[in-house]
Amino acid sequence: MTDEPQRNDGEESGQEQEAPDDRERNEGEESGPDPAAPDDALPEDFDIPAVEPAPEEPSPRAPPRVKKTPRRPSSIETLVYALGWIFVALFYGSLLWVAAYRFVPPPGTVTMIERSLAGETIRHQWADLSEISPHLVRAVIAAEDSRFCLHKGLDFAAIEEAVGEFKNGGRRRGASTISQQTAKNAFLWNGGGWTRKTAEAWFTLVVETLWPKRRIMEVYLNVAEWGNGIFGAEAAARARFRVSARSLSKEQAALLAAVLPNPHKWRVDPPGPFVAGRADMLRKRMDVVANEGLDSCARP
Question: Is the dihedral of CA 22, 24, 27, 29 positive or negative?
Fold first, then answer.
């Protein structure tokens, strides 16, 4: 009974003796270096000094903007601009003008204004081509432009022929087509000069492009001058023969066409020897025009 408690005490004392060693070992392990910790680890209470950013270098200052004063165009530049705008206005204006006369009868011409300012009484009455005798159509083709239905406004063959005759000592004669005369009478003025000739050529090309041949003949017969302030076939037929343009006979049509080159000098009532002979010649040519169909483009 007494042996067991003593053994227990011994065991307890032995355990008490081993406890200090364990504590020392544990303390040694706690105080020893941590093998997993890095060698350069900083203590927890170490303050990392704040790194101040490097001062920014000042950017180079842009030079101050100089307000440019707009340059005034020179006199030559102003002249070129003005001429350019004038050309554009004339170009498109001429196209619109010709296009309008394709459908609207011309209210008047420059020549009518000139004659009116000179004191003449203007007599003018519009007539559609269907209201004008075909004899007069054939007569003006025979007298002024036998190739009217064949060319495109400018008859270069007739021009070369006229130049050749003049060089060979013949008299100087014009080679203007009915299309050219229509362009001159409807849009321009009488007289020579390169300015008018150049404008006439331009208007002729535009007219031939925008108008059919029937319209060219119709306007031509309505703006042609027959002297004493008389313009157009209707006014001429009534003033010279007391008939309408539709009722003109072959002889009357030939007389009217005979004086077209110079209506102020040549007369049809009564005709002189020159006009009578010219009208007789035109009557024969009118037969050729009809037989060969040279008026086909102007027929109804």
Answer: negative
Estimate the crossing angle of helix 178-187 against helix 213-223, to 10 degrees: 60
* Domain 93-298: homologous superfamily in CATH: Biosynthetic peptidoglycan transglycosylase-like (1.10.3810.10)
Count Cα neighbours of 277 within 13 Å in the Cβ-side half-sphere: 3
Q: What is the pLDDT of residues 158-194, one digit of tens each?
A: 666 656 655 566 555 556 899 999 999 999 998 878 8
Task: Name which residue leads in pLDDT, 38 or 94.
Answer: 94
How far is residue 27 from each of residues 20, 188, 203, measured CA to CA in Å?
A: 10, 128, 123
> What is the mean pLDDT of the segment spanning 36-44?
55
d(CA 279, CA 99): 35
Q: What is the pTM of this model?
A: 0.73
The domain locations on the chain are 93-298
Identify residue 199 by its one-letter amino acid code.
A
β-pair partners for 250: none
Contacts of residue 229, Cβ cutoff 8 Å, sequence gap at least 6: 115, 116, 120, 121, 122, 123
Our CA angle for 203, 191, 222, nearest 5°, is 55
Tokens standing for residue 156: 């270069």
- With residues binned 3-state (H G I as helix, E B as strand, rest as coil), the percentages for the chain, rounded to 5, are 55, 0, 40
